[in-house]
Write a structure and sequence with these properties.
Helices cover 30% and strands 18% of the residues. It contains 13 helices and 17 strands.
Amino acid sequence: MTSILKPGLTMQAEQARHDLERLLYPAANWVQPSTDPEGRPVLDVLVVGAGMCGQSAAFGLLRAGVRNLRVIDREARGREGPWGTFARMLTLRSPKHLTGPDLGIGTLTFRAWYEAQHGAEGWASLYKIPTLTWRDYLLWVRDTVGIAVENRTALVSLKPEGDGLRATLEGPGGQETVHARKVVLALGREGSGSLRWPRFPSFDPRSPAASGRVLHASTEFPFAPMAGKRVAVLGAGATGFDNAATALDAGAAQVTLFARRTSLPQVNKSKWTSFPGFFHGFINLPDEWRWKFLTHVYSEQVPPPHESVLRCDGDARFAVRLGEAWTDLVPGDDAVRIETIRGSHVFDYAILATGFDVDLMERAELAAFRGAVRLWRDRVDAAEASQHAEASRFPYLGAGFELMACEGTALPSARNVHLFNWGSAMSHGQLAGDIPGLAVGVDRLVQAIASDLFVADAKKHHAALLAHAEPELKTTRYYVAP
C-alpha cells in the first residue's frame, strides 16, 4: 500500500519532524551492545505487531534511545491491526479529540493531521473519525517518525535462552532465528488468545460444511455473496451490529440479530475508567481492588454504540430477536439451520460476533512458556476464579507489562517478554489497545524496558563512566593534560 500526500500533509510532516528534531529525536543509542554465548549480535528489543500499539511502542523506544530494535508484522502494509480488515464500524468509538499515537507531540496528533488536509472548518464539522481514516493517520505517523516495519513477517515461536529470548521468524526470505534481550508482544485484541467459537452439538468450525457459510465476525470475509440472502448474526454487541449493517449494505435480503440477553446493555462502564487517575493509579492498587474494578466492568458488558444500532435499526430488512439463545448450529451445503430456545430457523449465512477468548498460554508461539507463567487465577481464590473464568485466564503482569514466572519456576527470561495488548488489561487497565490510555501505557512500557536494559549492563556502564575523559577545559589556560 502506498500513500500520496497532499501538499498540506507534506508540510505537516515536515513541521512534525522539525519538532522531533528540536526534541533530539531519535535519541542517541545508549544501550551497550550485546552478543549471545556464541558471539552473535543480540537485538535489544523485538516488537511483534505493528498496529497502533506496536508502532507506538517502537516510537517510544526510539525516543528513549533504544534503537537496536526490529518491528515485525505478519500482515502487509496498511493491514496491520483491525482497521483495514475486520473492523466494520464506519467510525471509531472514541471521540475525535483523543490523543495517543502522537505521544504528546502536538504536530503529530490526529487533529493536526486532519486540519492539514481539511482545515479548521473541516475539523469542526467532523463528528467521529472514519475507521479507514484512522488507519491512514497511523501510517502517516509511522512514516513521519521513521519506524521501519518488516511486513509479512510473523513470529513462529519464542523460547527462553538463558536470560534472553530466541525468536523464530517467518518472512518473505523464509525462516530466521533472532536473539533478543526483550520482546514486546503487541498482537492486538486477538494476540492474547484466539477467536471465540461457541460450542454447539452439530457445529465444528473446522468442518468443510461450515467453511464460507458460518463466519466469525473478527475475521475477513466477503459480504458481496450475501446480496439477496438471509443472514443470521449471533451477538448483540458493537461487532454484531456492525456486521449486520455491513451485510445490509451489501444487499442482504434479511438480517436477523440474535442475543440471549432479554435487553441490550445500557451503560459502557469502561468509559468511566478513562481518566488520568485510573490510568496512572490502577497498577498500584492491591490485587483485590484491581480484580473488583475490572470484573465489574467486564461483567456489566459493553452496549453497542448508538451509531451502530441506528445504522441497522431503520432498515425494514433488519430484525432483533432478544432473549433467544442458540442451542444448535447445523451448516449444510445450501443453508444453515439454527435451533434456538424458541424454535428453528433457516438462513443462508451465519455470522458469529462472539469475540476473542483470552488464553495467552494457548498461543502456539508461546508454547515454551506454558504452565510457567502466572495468571490471575493464581492470585484470587477458587470461587472468584470460577465466577469470572475469563478474567482469571488473563496473565498476571509486572509493573512494566512483563510476564511473571509462577512461584517455584526457574524461568528468568519470562520477565523479558512484555505483553502490550489486550491481555494486559486485568493488570494495568486498558492502556494497550484503547486510544485514551495508550500514551500512558507506552511511557510505562518504555521506562521499564530502558531501566531493565540499564541495570542489566551496570558493569559495562560503570566501565564506560571510568573511561569517559572528555576534557572540558581544553580550550582554556587551565587545561591540564592527562
